[in-house]
Amino acid sequence: MEESSRRKLNLGIVCHPAYGGSGVVASELGLELAARGHHVHFFSHSLPFRVPDAHPNTFFHEVEVTSYPLFKYPPYTLALATKLAEVCRKQPLDVLHVHYAIPHAVAAWLCTQMLPPEQRPATITTLHGTDITLVGLDNSFFEITRFSLDRSDGITAVSDQLAGETLRCFSTGRPVKIIPNFVDSDKFTPELRSQSRRSAFARQGEFLLGHLSNFRPVKRVLDVIRTFHILHRDLPARLVMIGEGVDLEPARNLAAELGILEHVTFLGPVDRVPEVLSQLDLFLLPSEYESFGLAALEAMACGVPVVASSTGGLPEVVEDGKCGYLCEVGDVRTMAERAAELLGDKQKITRFSAAARERARNEFEPSRIVDTYEDFYLQIIGETSESGSPGSDD
Ligand code: GMT
Questions:
Q1: In whole angstroms, how large is the CA radius of gyration of the chain?
Q2: Across residues 193-217, what is the average pLDDT?
Q3: Topology of 10-182+365-393 in CATH?
Q4: Reported pTM
Q5: pLDDT of residue 6
Q6: CB contact burial 60-97 (16+ within 10 A = b; e otherwise)
Q7: Ligand 1 centroid from CA 284, angstroms
Q8: How many angstroms is it from 330 CA to the middle of ligand 1?
Q9: Domain residue limits, the chain
Q10: Which pLDDT belongs to residue 385?
Q11: Which architecture does CATH list for 190-363?
Q12: Is the CB of 25 under 6 A from ligand 1?
């Protein structure tokens, strides 16, 4: 991988480490930056799941929270702020880049308050979705979320739609820079498609559909099962469900109730996501809301068209009628019809598959987007006056 000619920075990256898009983006970004020669310090309560144990230029700082019987809820934010300040004292960070505002943006601000000015890192908060549209709007978090955004030196959002929502809901006077997510299309590639891998999920002559998420209510995983149920009446097909979360059992129960359980494989969380995604004929993402839809982008990079809800930032990722179809949230009948239409037309699905792959490669290619983050870091620490494409201030 190429080292960039820019000044090498000491960077802190804070994220939620478990399965979820914001942790994936934070990890992949950190690894790309490390490959460019920056020193990247990850902070979390466990190693983010896509970060390898030992990797050049990366350091992992585990945040341990001491429990005490007095605490019903151990104060993770305080332990995180303390760890951040401790590391900054030993090796000052140029930038502290937190992913998902809650509670990371507050911890970043607390850290800066604990340090003398010469040791304070610049802070950047990247908004990923429900930190703004759901959790951040809750009464118990709204005020502190707005406060911590106002105190961040820079704010980015992963889609135009999310940037707009941030300005609308939080009326922060701060500019929100749009920096979309990215996908490594050498890693997520149709080249991984193989009959032997596919045969683990589907028989000859069966179509293979899939879904990947953290099975939270916002993902509407029951709609995945309902869509598949309608489709399965007319087409020989199987469904692979990747991930886990609160709606896993309800999804399994619904599949049993509808009599399709034997056609659905619940894989749980998997490490080898590209190997599974690339076997699919179609990816389903019927979410209530997606700020971006990273899982859809990863499927597209594998040459898999997407049938999804027309919500949030998904229209910025999935080009309707070209790399997939976007339908009203909850309209499982139309989703099933669109899926059947695609699967039943060999020429069309081949065209959509190629367009999905092309779009992922051209529009969401890592190096250009990582350049934008690097530029933004330099701008925030005052070493350049403006940042480059593809993001723009809203
Ligand atoms: O907002 C969330 O639900 C958290 C986050 C996660 O960790 O899963 O997901 C969001 O961030 C991803 C990466 O930027 C986006 O691709 C997802 O669309 C977004 N999820 C939602 O907006 C529901």
A1: 21
A2: 96
A3: Rossmann fold (3.40.50)
A4: 0.94
A5: 76
A6: bbebebeeeeeeeeeeebebbbbbbbebbeeeebbbbb
A7: 16
A8: 19
A9: 10-182+365-393, 190-363
A10: 57
A11: 3-Layer(aba) Sandwich (3.40)
A12: yes
